[in-house]
Automatic annotation (TrEMBL):
Superkingdom: Bacteria
InterPro entries cross-referenced by the UniProt entry: DUF2129
Biological source species: Paenibacillus montaniterrae
Name the record gives this protein: DUF2129 domain-containing protein
Keyword Cytoplasm: yes
Length: 87
């Protein structure tokens, strides 16, 4: 069974040094323009990994990702209006 994963957005000042975040979890995406890293880690080790993240000198801010809390299943309560315009 797959472990529960939690996503975090880590704002960094140095992207080259941010490659070291791979030891704390899975780096999903690194933005060169906005200087942030999307990092996924196991939910059971989150607290100790966050303490290590805040100790790093190149980490400016850490935000929790709410992606797993967003509803992704939609109901079709409203009729599809695009069918009325098709030829």
């Amino acid at each position: 069974m797959l472990p529960e994963r939690t996503g975090y957005i880590v704002w960094v000042s140095d992207l080259k040094a941010a490659r070291g975040l791979e030891r704390l979890g899975t780096v999903h995406y690194m933005s060169r323009k906005l200087h942030y890293v999307v990092l996924y880690m196991n939910a059971d080790k989150v607290e100790e990994n966050l303490k290590q993240l805040h100790r790093l000198s190149y980490v400016r801010k850490v935000e929790r990702s709410y992606r797993n809390e967003i509803k992704t299943e939609y109901s079709k309560d409203v009729e599809d209006k695009t069918r009325a315009y098709s030829i």
